[in-house]
Design brief:
Layout: E1 12-17, E2 23-28, H1 31-36, E3 52-57, H2 60-69, H3 72-94, H4 105-131
Antiparallel strand pairs: 1-2, 2-3
Amino acid sequence: MLQCPAGELAMRVEKREAKNGNQYRNYVFSKKKCDKCPLKGQCKVGKGKPHSYSITQASQRNRSRLEFEASEKFQERLKIRHRIEKKNGELKEAHGLGRADSVGLFAMELQMYFMAFAANIKRITKLIALAG
């Protein structure tokens, strides 16, 4: 049973399991006691309407993902991600990659290659114009 900072115990515990395998425990506290509590400002419980506090227990698969995200290798990859996302955003917004022209995965793949080719040609001509 979970205890709030004032020492009150939760009235009930709601357990549920998500599709991704994580388990959630939602501890529900008395609204009347939370409203009168002197520690209401520093308590995580009394913030929302249901006066509850949720704890997530990650599944084994998600735990390994969280460990990978804390690693040095992931942090290095994260540093260059914004450069890749910037180019993907440009292709989507300025060159029409956000909407498929044809039906099917192969058609979308072709559209992506042509859009990337067109964007690279624009960059090359801009660089040549600046250099010359």
